[in-house]
């Protein structure tokens, strides 16, 4: 049954507000890294956990968050997620140490894993008409694109004027406003018949993902052959193997492995993961470089990142037209070849020359990132049945979050000891280029 227009507008307003906050948190925290390092005497490994505490919990619980929305109602899941996210933001702002900040960031990720799929389900239920639903989702995604573009600048202004805690305090009134609007929503849509949750699979996924990111972050400090890292790697391998076995044999798997029988779907998941690896890993590295090497303030760093994040929005808006003109196979492969071009441009520009030399590379990388996400989504969803579109979209989003966490862990670790040197970011940039070229080749083969 269709929903009245005033109700539809309330739903769209409430869900868009929450999505803006979630997307802001993926970019705004990077601008605060230097202040957090000074406040808590945190090494790069600690800063990586601040970023990844949020991203890892978001990625690991996203599929279960969507299922909980099906089971208990999208409105209830959305309210629970937004309430937890808002409370966790307050805890982040009040953190007295690095551990408490990372723990609060984990809670933020759990809240996001509930509210993001819940918000999409609310929009879907409120707009049975395909045209209205497409416009609503477009506006919802557009708000996220604006948040991504504005995040570094907004963060810089807040940090320089009110301190790093302000980037978390600002979430509290926004989250409260979103909850107040959601309370007025009467329509929740139909609930799916209760199915057993994949608890064992979820636990294995959490252990595997946390273990992998932990090993990647801590190995440079402990040493790759240290007992702690070897034990961590063993536990990670066991958890990942167990997860695959559970998902293949379980009656109600959180991740239906038959989705990966399609080479196009598998390639799209890998492409989504690799693009997030490159973009968010580079965002972490550049944020540190601009502040620690160039000595820029948080606001100056936000302005420096603005061209790149703005081009993410531009690439996203032009993606459909480009794919329609030349196809997803050629366009996605070409987009991944833009990444190494941008990386070489940043290598040539260095870390101490005029920012103008780095600007073209930043614009190119931002556009490629914005283009890839929607361009990889359409072919993947086109390979699954209509009733599995939701779970397929959840898999793609989880892959992006996992890729972002891995990018921060691996590319961030490349500059642990050398960031103060002129060529300190070069190892990360060379690795970025290699991953991008390999991904272009893989997609060309799997999509053919």
Automatic annotation (TrEMBL):
**Keyword Membrane appears in the UniProt entry:** yes
Entry keyword Transmembrane: yes
**Sequence ranges assigned to domain Major facilitator superfamily (MFS) profile in this UniProt record:** 11-448
Q: What CDD domains does its record include?
A: MFS_MMR_MDR_like (cd17321)
Task: Kindly list the places in or outside the cell where this protein is found, as annotated in its UniProt entry.
Answer: Membrane
Task: Return the GO cellular component terms, semicolon-separated.
Answer: membrane
Membrane-spanning residues: 12-32, 47-65, 77-100, 136-159, 165-185, 197-217, 223-246, 267-290, 302-323, 332-349, 355-378, 428-446
What is this entry's stated membrane topology?
Multi-pass membrane protein
UniProt keywords (A-Z) are:
Membrane, Transmembrane, Transmembrane helix, Transport
User: Any idea which GO molecular function terms this record carries?
Assistant: transmembrane transporter activity
Under the heading InterPro entries, the entry gives: MFS, MFS_dom, MFS_trans_sf
Q: What is its main location?
A: membrane
Q: Which domain of life does this protein belong to?
A: Bacteria
Q: What is this protein called?
A: Drug resistance transporter, EmrB/QacA subfamily
Q: Which organism is it from?
A: Rhizobium freirei PRF 81
Lineage here is: Bacteria, Pseudomonadati, Pseudomonadota, Alphaproteobacteria, Hyphomicrobiales
């Amino acid at each position: 049954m269709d929903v009245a227009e005033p109700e539809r507008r309330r739903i769209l307003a409430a869900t868009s507000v929450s999505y803006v906050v979630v997307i802001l948190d993926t970019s705004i925290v990077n601008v605060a890294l230097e202040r957090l390092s000074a406040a808590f005497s945190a090494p790069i490994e600690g800063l990586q956990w601040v970023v990844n505490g949020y991203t890892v919990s978001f990625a690991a619980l996203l599929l279960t968050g969507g299922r909980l929305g099906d089971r208990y109602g999208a409105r209830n899941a959305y309210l629970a997620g937004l309430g937890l996210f808002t409370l966790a933001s307050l805890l982040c702002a009040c953190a007295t140490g690095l551990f408490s900040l990372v723990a609060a960031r984990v809670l933020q990720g759990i809240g996001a894993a509930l509210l993001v799929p819940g918000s999409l389900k609310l929009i879907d239920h409120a707009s049975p008409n395909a045209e209205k639903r497409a416009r609503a989702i477009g506006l919802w995604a557009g708000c996220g694109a604006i948040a991504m573009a504005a995040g570094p600048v907004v963060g810089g202004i807040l940090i320089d004027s009110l301190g790093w805690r302000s980037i978390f305090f600002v979430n509290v009134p926004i989250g409260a406003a979103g909850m107040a609007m959601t309370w007025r929503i009467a329509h929740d849509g139909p609930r799916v018949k209760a199915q057993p949750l994949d608890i064992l699979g979820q636990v294995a996924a959490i252990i595997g993902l946390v273990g992998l990111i932990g090993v990647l972050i801590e190995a440079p400090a402990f040493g790759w052959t240290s007992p702690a890292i070897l034990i961590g790697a063993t536990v990670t391998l066991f958890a990942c193997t167990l997860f695959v076995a559970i998902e293949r044999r379980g009656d109600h798997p959180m991740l239906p492995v038959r989705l990966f029988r399609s080479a196009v779907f598998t390639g799209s998941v890998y492409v989504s993961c690799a693009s997030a690896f490159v973009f968010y890993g580079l965002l972490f590295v550049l944020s540190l470089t601009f502040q620690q090497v160039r000595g820029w303030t948080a606001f100056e760093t936000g302005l420096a990142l603005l061209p790149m994040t703005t081009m993410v929005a531009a690439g996203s808006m032009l993606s459909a037209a480009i794919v329609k003109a030349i196809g997803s196979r050629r366009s996605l492969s070409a987009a991944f070849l833009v990444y190494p071009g941008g990386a070489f441009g940043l290598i040539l520009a260095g870390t101490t020359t005029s920012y103008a030399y780095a600007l073209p590379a930043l614009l190119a990388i931002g556009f490629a990132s914005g283009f890839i996400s929607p361009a990889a989504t359409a072919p993947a969803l086109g390979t699954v049945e209509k009733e599995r579109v939701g779970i397929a979209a959840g898999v793609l989003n989880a892959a992006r979050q996992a890729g972002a966490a891995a990018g921060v862990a691996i590319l961030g670790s490349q500059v642990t000891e050398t960031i103060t040197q002129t060529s300190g970011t070069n190892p990360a940039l060379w690795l970025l280029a290699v991953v991008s070229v390999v991904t272009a080749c893989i997609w060309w083969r799997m999509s053919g």
